[in-house]
Each structure stands twice: as structure tokens, then as C-alpha cells.
Amino acid sequence: MISSEWGTPNMVEAGLNPDLLMQGKYGHQLHIWDLRRRRHLQALDLGAEQQMVLELRPSHDPNKEYGFVGVVVSLKDLSASIWAWHRSNGSWQVQKVIEVPAEPAPPEQLPEALKPFGAVPPLITDINLSLDDRFLYISCWGTGEFQQWDVSDPFSPKKTGSVRLGGIVSRASHPKNGALNGGPQMVEVSRDGRRAYVTNSLYGSWDPIFYPEGIRGWLAKIDADPAGGLRLDPDLFLEFAGERPHQVRLEGGDASSDSYCFP
Question: Is 161 exposed, middle or buried (0-12, 13-18, 19+ CB in 10 A)?
Fold first, then answer.
């Protein structure tokens, strides 16, 4: 089993603790476990500046020993990143394969927590891997960008698509709506790899830190080209009156709940 680190309950429930963040106290490791013997085997430290090692997406092919993990923010430059973990010569290793930079912004357009930095962090809060292990989808909740990467070679990804919805500063609109707040957060991909669905709420106590006006809930559908590329579905946009949608699941199965079986 592979596990990641976000933070202990008292570092999460009341919202982001800036002092602990700047001290590098949030999670920055992956852990390898032997489930049969109930033993911790190895810790992979990504570096204390890599804060909130969050969502894990293993290869769907059970014969492959690799996967991806998203890091929410780097203390070095507010960038976010994707790392690939894999086994080589009997030991587990991890390496950075994608980096998403922060975007400069006028301090007066930023929430209080970000004013001193003069930039919008991407804040990678969710990732998803298509069922054929070809495309990795990345939600940048801070900037509002939703990205598609070809990860046929897990250690040399190529960016193949991008759309924008919301964002702390950009407030990118949808064809069926005006300027949006929040941004692509939890993402789910259909089994055929042609559809992705995103919602815009992270966590009750964290939403107002980055979106002080409060999250106005929405769900959007994004069409994915089998050859690579993304396009907003202009017709499917669902607003939630007074509610903050978080997780997406698809009837009949999706890329998070399905996996290939051992032969």
C-alpha cells in the first residue's frame, strides 16, 4: 500500500495554519506499507518545502508498479507539482515529473493569505488517471486551470490540453454562466476516457481562505479527445443553490473505482 500525507486533524479542521505551513509542518512524504505483515517499509521524503502531498493515483494495470501523487504547494515559489513513484531494483523511489508555476497577480486582487506573495498558487487539489493509464488530469483549484497530460511515458509527460473555469483572480466563465468562483477541484473521468466532470469545493474550512466571498457551488463537464485535447461542454453546467459540491462519482463505474484484474 502507498499512503500520502496532508496533515493531522488539528492542522486541517480549522483551515490552513499559515505558521505551520511556512515551517514545513504539513505532509511531505509518501509511505510504503506491507499489508500482509502490517509493517511500514519505507518513507519517501519529497522535501519539507513540498507541502501537502495529497492525491494518489496508481496505475490501473496491476502488473505495473508505478503511480502519481500531487503536491498542493511548494514553499519555494508557490508552484505545485506531480511526482511519479515506482519500484526499481527492489526499492521504491519517487521523482518530480510535472511542475505547474504560480501566476503573478496584483495583491489587491488576492485574498489576505496570498497578498504578501503577489501570486496565485495553482493548488493541485485533485488528479485522476484515465482507465487506460494514458492521460493524467490535474485540477488547479487556485488558478482555475484544468489540465490534461499524456503520461504514456510516466517519466516524461506531455501537456495535451487545458481549459479554465473560475480561479482566485481569473474568474474564468462558462458558456452557460458568467464569471465563476472556486475552480476545478475534485475530478472524475468516465470509463471510456471521453468525459471529465469537475466540482469546485475543497473543504468547508478551507474554501473561504482562498475564496473569501464563499464558494458558489457548480459542476461542469469537459469533453476529452481520445487523441488528446480538452473542450468545455457548453450545455452541461449545474449550479448548487447554497450547497458546496465536493466528490463526483459516475453511475456504472468511473476511472477512480474501476481497475483491471490480475490474469
Answer: buried
